[in-house]
Amino acid sequence: MSCMHDDDMTNKTLKWVVVLLLVWVYVRYAMKVRPEMLMLQTSITNDRMHELLAEKHPVIIDESIPNIKDMLKTTFKYQYIMSRTSQSPPYYDAAKREAPWRRCNARYTLLHVRSASNAFFIDVKHPKMKYDIVRVNVRDSCVMILPPRYWYRPVAHAHAPTADMQKPEIKSSLHIVELYDVIHTVMMPVIGITTRIFSK
Length: 200
Description:
By secondary structure, the chain is of the alpha+beta class.
């Protein structure tokens, strides 16, 4: 009896070890960051879209997408279990002329630009290259998709004079949609705490 009980315990232990190992491998893959940053540009109809997203580089959908929800129902249909939508706070600071940096804690962060002037800029930083900033001009109704741990900030009308910034015809907004899978949903509080600690 004792031998059979020991065998059962050993089998259960092995199963747990295998499960934990698989979880560890998936977490490593999910949180992995490419050592370099490439800006990929494509269209919403690209058959290789999922392959591009798997590369974990920023992706720009350079065509008009009036409703971001259309992408959630097609391209990202089985890519997330929870979503969070927000709008960027006022991106323009009269003193600093810039917005604070925000970190991508979700599996995918979609930045949907609504700009009447086609002069909306977004600064992007690689997680491990804090001083290398890439400024991208994202046209109206286009979408930028950022992978986990990247940093971004909206810099609308970066070269516009201060007086022009207040004109109603060039008012802009940045709609942010964060898509979380199981791992990023669980890791979200941990990432948030560590981000606050290391940003001090």
